């Protein structure tokens, strides 16, 4: 089917039929005589009287002028022109998927010059889990089962300013032919066997890694959290092989490590510490988790704790260059911090000594004034006494 050709509307055919009919009645095409016109003169003479004018057939009069075929409408999903959808083939009414339904889809994405650069056939994605381009994820929520649509996606909701080497350039607008084949609900995790859990979990973990390499850390965090829901050994049906359980748990710890790294990128340090805590509780010698935990503690200003974590890491791997370098930086920062504290203490003590000296000087001055006042008062009293005595003698 031609992607650029609009679907024909049934109203267009109705309009053509009506116009053709009216043209015939207006004399634009030859008007066929009724069959009665070809009766013989003998039949006419037996009682039929020929009229001067032929009776005109009844003409249908439409109640209103036929409306032109409606133009195909684009749905502006976000209201800013960056994500638009047009229905090419309607699906089953009231059959839209909801999160976290599993959608079976096919799509073909083209650049503005028509080059096909992104194509998948009958893959399954979880709605709302960013398993594919964001624009496709948004559009699927507005499609019915069996629907085919054309979706125009701005780069922001496709492959962004990075593009995808070698075929998708930066800031590329993509036009997709998208088909929603089927919608189903996934079973709860508790009802999935270990192989299904591993398959779904690894797929979501890899998607998180993809987002991480593109510096889309919030989307990476979402994918990693989704992966952790499936990389779980709780209540696995049947009796799974022990080696597969160990594999699942190992992938779970790797996912936690990656989750913590993404959380560090958006400065969610407390959440990252929790993620690394999950790793270290099961693998106390995990160097990646040790190093990243030390980094976070350093950023939070907890140098003593950070140094302790790094030293623990060096007991695990004494030759690790990254840990050695980090310890040197931490010790230097600690010395600098101690120097600042000493200088601050000295400054505080210096001000205290100066304040004490000033207080003593004020006290000494006050004592001197008191003595002087007493002397003056004593002299005055003596003088008055002398005058009184003199007066009495006289």
From TrEMBL:
One of its GO terms (molecular function) is peptidyl-prolyl cis-trans isomerase activity. Keywords: Isomerase, Membrane, Repeat, Rotamase, TPR repeat, Transmembrane, Transmembrane helix. One of its GO terms (cellular component) is membrane. The keyword Transmembrane helix applies. It comes from the Eukaryota. SUPFAM superfamilies: FKBP-like (SSF54534), TPR-like (SSF48452). It catalyses: [protein]-peptidylproline (omega=180) = [protein]-peptidylproline (omega=0). Residues 100-184 form the PPIase FKBP-type domain. Its EC number is 5.2.1.8. One of its GO terms (biological process) is negative regulation of apoptotic process. TPR repeats lie at residues 253-286. Residues 1-17, 25-53 have a biased composition (Basic and acidic residues). InterPro entries: FKBP4/5/8-like, PPIase_dom_sf, PPIase_FKBP_dom, TPR-like_helical_dom_sf, TPR_rpt. Residues 1-74 are annotated as: Disordered. It is an enzyme of class 5 (isomerase). The chain crosses the membrane at residues 368-389. This is peptidylprolyl isomerase.
């Amino acid at each position: 089917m031609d992607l650029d050709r609009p679907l024909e509307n049934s109203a267009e055919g109705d309009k053509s039929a009506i116009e053709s009919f009216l043209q015939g009645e207006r004399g634009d095409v030859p008007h066929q005589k009724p069959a009665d016109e070809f009766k013989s003169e003998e039949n006419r003479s037996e009682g039929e009287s020929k009229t001067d004018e032929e009776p005109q057939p009844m003409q249908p009069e439409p109640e209103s002028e036929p409306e032109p075929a409606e133009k195909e409408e684009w749905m502006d999903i976000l209201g800013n022109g960056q994500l638009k959808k047009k229905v090419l083939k309607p699906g089953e009414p009231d059959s839209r998927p909801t999160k976290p339904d599993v959608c079976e889809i096919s799509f073909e994405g083209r650049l503005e010059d028509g080059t096909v650069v992104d194509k998948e056939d009958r893959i399954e994605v979880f709605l709302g889990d960013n398993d594919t381009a964001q624009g496709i994820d948004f559009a699927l929520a507005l499609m019915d089962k069996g629907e085919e649509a054309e979706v125009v996606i701005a780069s922001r909701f496709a492959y962004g300013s990075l593009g995808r080497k070698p075929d998708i350039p930066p800031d590329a607008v993509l036009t997709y032919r998208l088909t929603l084949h089927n919608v189903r609900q996934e079973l709860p995790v508790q009802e999935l066997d270990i192989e299904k859990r591993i398959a779904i979990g690894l797929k979501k973990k890899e998607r998180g890694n993809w987002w991480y390499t593109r510096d889309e850390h919030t989307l990476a965090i979402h994918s990693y959290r989704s992966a952790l829901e499936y990389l779980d050994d709780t209540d696995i049906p049947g009796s799974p092989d022990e080696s597969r359980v160990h594999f699942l748990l190992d992938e779970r710890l790797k996912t936690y490590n990656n989750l913590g790294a993404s959380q560090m990128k958006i400065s969610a340090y407390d959440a990252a510490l929790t993620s690394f805590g999950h790793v270290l509780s099961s693998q106390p010698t995990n160097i990646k988790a040790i190093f990243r935990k030390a980094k976070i503690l350093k950023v939070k200003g907890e140098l003593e704790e950070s140094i302790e974590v790094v030293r623990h890491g060096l007991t695990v791997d004494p030759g690790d260059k990254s840990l050695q370098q980090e310890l040197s930086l931490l010790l230097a920062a600690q010395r600098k911090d101690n120097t600042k504290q000493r200088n601050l203490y000295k400054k505080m003590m210096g001000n205290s000594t100066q304040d004490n000296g000033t207080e003593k000087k004020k006290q000494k001055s006050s004592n001197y004034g008191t003595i002087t006042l007493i002397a003056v008062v004593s002299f005055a009293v003596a003088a008055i006494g002398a005058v009184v005595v003199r007066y009495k003698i006289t």
